[in-house]
Write a structure and sequence with these properties.
Layout lengths: L14 H20 L4 H5 L10 H20 L26 H24 L6 E4 L2 E4 H27 L5
Antiparallel strand pairs: 1-2
Length: about 170
């Protein structure tokens, strides 16, 4: 795999530091899985009929970052840049028509959403800050734990996709 620039999470830190470091490690893992690949390789689908691709995972990661941190915790009404107006469908994985600029745009939007998410966490008084989806209430603590799980699951997919592309495996 490409050089590993991830920072290992601290083993003895407070709860906020531990959760945010674990989440950042997972974000960095997805970036590492995608590093060094061409736009065409990043769009390559896993196996039929799956629409799963590395750039699709990046777009999905941007969506869940935006949805959980900006919309749920921060109370914004931000819409996906990939979902057509008036549609409720998620279009994160619709990458067949992406040109190299669209692939790079996906990574730019993802990095921006990660930065916004970090700002939301940094601005929170505590992990007990709450947000809502309809009638459901979620704490920032829950959102951080959920996002770690979300990335860890999809990083497993990314590992398999990367192995299929060039045989590379590993963290």
């Amino acid at each position: 795999m490409n050089e590993d620039h991830r920072i290992q999470p601290p083993r003895t830190a407070d709860e906020r530091t531990t959760l945010t470091a674990m989440l950042q490690f997972q974000r960095d893992t997805l970036a590492m899985k995608c590093a060094g690949l061409t736009p065409e390789e990043l769009k390559e689908r896993a196996v039929a009929p799956s629409g799963l691709s590395l750039v699709g995972l990046v777009r999905h990661a941007a969506e869940v970052e935006r949805g959980w941190f900006r919309n749920v915790i921060n109370g914004e009404k931000s819409r996906s840049p990939w979902t057509p107006p008036g549609s409720a469908d998620w279009a994160d994985f619709d990458v067949d028509d992406l040109d190299p600029t669209g692939v790079e745009e996906a990574f730019t939007i993802w990095r921006e959403e990660c930065a916004r998410a970090r700002a939301v966490v940094d601005a929170a008084d505590s992990l007990d800050v709450r947000g809502h989806i309809g009638e459901e209430t979620y704490s920032l603590r829950y959102v951080l734990a959920h996002m770690i799980e979300e990335y860890a699951r999809h990083n497993g997919h990314a590992d398999l996709l990367r192995e299929r592309l060039d045989g590379r495996t590993g963290e």
